[in-house]
Amino acid sequence: MDLLNAIVALSNFVLVPAIAYGSQLALGALGVTLIYGILRFSNFAHGDTMAFGTMATILFTWWFQSLGISFGPLPTALLALPLGILGCMAIVLLTDRGIYRFYREQKAKPVILVIVSMGVMFIMNGLVRVIIGPDDQNFADGDRFIITAREFREMTGLREGLALKSTQGITVITAVIVVALLFWFLNRTRTGKSMRAYSDNEDLALLSGINPERVVMITWLIVAALATVAGVLYGLDKSFKPFVYFQLLLPIFASAIVGGLGSPVGAIAGGFIIAFSEVTITYAWKKVLTYLLPEAWQPDGLVQLMSTDYKFAVSFVILLIVLLVKPTGLFKGKSV
Amino acid sequence: MIKVKDLHKHFGGFHAVDGANLEIAEGSITGLIGPNGAGKTTLFNVIAGVLEPTAGRVTMAGKDITGLPPHELFHKGLLRTFQIAHEFSSMTCRENLMMVPGNQSGERLWNTWFGRRRIANEERALRAKADEVLEFLTIEHLADHRAGQVSGGQKKLLELGRTMMVDARIVFLDEVGAGVNRTLLNTIADAIIRLNKERQYTFVVIEHDMDFIGRLCDPVICMAEGRVLAEGTLAEIKANEQVIEAYLGTGLKNKVNT
Ligand SMILES: Nc1ncnc2c1ncn2[C@@H]1O[C@H](COP(=O)(O)OP(=O)(O)OP(=O)(O)O)[C@@H](O)[C@H]1O
Ligand SMILES: [Mg+2]
């Protein structure tokens, strides 16, 4: 019984949140990794691209809500998501046409593009704050839980409860669908293959008749979609605040780099590695240990390795270790 | 077919191509020889749109193609291979070849959803063609190997194979024979001659192997220090004093003459 309780407590506080958070990070990291693979720079504006897409989705959600449209037990934001994605695609294509293309034509070095993307980051950040304000926005509606802790306890008779938030379920299901679509696209369609070819060997791709501007445009469109989905899922699960999305940049980059920049599979693995490390290191293990250890060994303190205030330090440390030990990441991306 | 007028390519103060003038006749197999660093590869790069010329013009069939991007030149039928073989390393050899014809209906985004049947047919035709090319190059057993893992010489064959996937008009081969063994070298030479006769490809061939050049090329152009030194049949080139001094050398002369 104690073992079961321990497992349930572990699932409730570590596994389930980490899987949901990992899915969100993975989707974010996929965007970063695609830009790195095709356009060959680290896009610092990615966090704020997520914020922009999420903001657009929230505005459409509010509009739907004011019209009395709802999605039954599911959040209205899912209905608004396609429109939010279109909004994000528009702004991303606009920045590409207006800003990045100029530097591409100059054949600017990646370092310069990174700095440019920081500029874009500040502009987008400002734009989002001007439009929706810097505060927290809660836009989740529909059913809150798939199963609450109490229902679980009554069902199983265990002391520990396992709460499953509907946003967590939605996150995982959506992430699986999006990732499946992305991999189908990259591996099965000609356009996807030409993207892979372009990422693999740019010179050869050009001399094989692949149009670089087209590849770049499609990449941005996909990245906008991924960023919006990641941002909306995160916002539904936690809440939407522009500054938080800026902060997400670190774990997202850590995920992409740990997995190997330029490698989509790596981005997904990296997302889960970072999420699990962050959650396990900042979790207070007292409860789980109380079930597992004999009376005499029970811990007095919280058995928390690090306070949650330091959760970003976790990504940072993992990032440093990977860069020192295996700079190309776990899945052999391009070295950074 | 291709005319190069007073072409310059400077890297900083260094003149890699320094006023090159030459003309490639339609249907010919033109040899391009010259010492290391003569600017042959750079000339290819400028013609193929990889590098912008510092000055000068390139025309193809009378039309100005100077500075056009490589993918547009590809669609005009101008192809090239690389001196150092390039490949899509994460794809198989077959997929590498299938990547080449860049302008298919599958490239249109909506067709990935609505034109499935047509795309499937195209894929099948493309696959058959790729297999045919692999067989022609005697590397059919490598079809499912990752291109990044095959040998250097085999990558060279793959480079040549790429030009056979589409109907090219003019193909620039940058030392396709280097690092390839004798028997394969003959295969490559045969392939070039056949493509030239049967499919009317025009070829420009950079090579350091005089036997290879002798078998294939007429005329031969010799470059040195970014300029065209001499042009003519191989026999004329070999007899040219300037060429001997700059490239062939007196020691080589006897060997070449045999
Ligand atoms: N990107 C570059 N930047 C600076 N210098 C270059 C560049 N590319 C080529 N060069 C210089 O231009 C000169 C001509 O090079 P190129 O590669 O055209 O010679 P090549 O005739 O093809 O020689 P090889 O027979 O050895 O292949 C060389 O001296 C080389 O150092
Ligand atoms: Mg060369």
Automatic annotation (TrEMBL), chain A:
GO BP term (any one): L-alanine transport
InterPro entries named among the record's database cross-references: ABC_transp_permease (IPR001851), BCAA_transport_permease (IPR052157)
Segments passing through the bilayer: 6-39, 51-71, 77-99, 111-132, 168-186, 215-236, 312-331
UniProt keyword terms in alphabetical order: Amino-acid transport, Cell inner membrane, Cell membrane, Membrane, Transmembrane, Transmembrane helix, Transport
One Pfam family linked to the record: BPD_transp_2
Membrane topology: Multi-pass membrane protein
Keyword Cell membrane: yes
Protein localization: Cell membrane
Example of a GO MF term: L-leucine transmembrane transporter activity
Gene Ontology cellular-component terms listed: plasma membrane
Principal place of residence: membrane
Domain of life per record: Bacteria
Family: Belongs to the binding-protein-dependent transport system permease family. LivHM subfamily.
Protein name: Branched-chain amino acid ABC transporter permease
Organism: Pontibaca salina
Origin organism lineage: Bacteria, Pseudomonadati, Pseudomonadota, Alphaproteobacteria, Rhodobacterales
Automatic annotation (TrEMBL), chain B:
Cross-referenced Pfam families: ABC_tran, BCA_ABC_TP_C
Gene3D superfamilies: P-loop containing nucleotide triphosphate hydrolases
GO molecular function, one term: ATP hydrolysis activity
Keyword terms of this UniProt record: ATP-binding, Nucleotide-binding, Transport
Domain of life from the UniProt record: Bacteria
Any single GO CC term annotated in Swiss-Prot or TrEMBL for this entry: plasma membrane
Domain ABC transporter, chain residue ranges per copy: 2-250
Keyword Nucleotide-binding carried by entry: yes
Name of the protein: ABC transporter ATP-binding protein
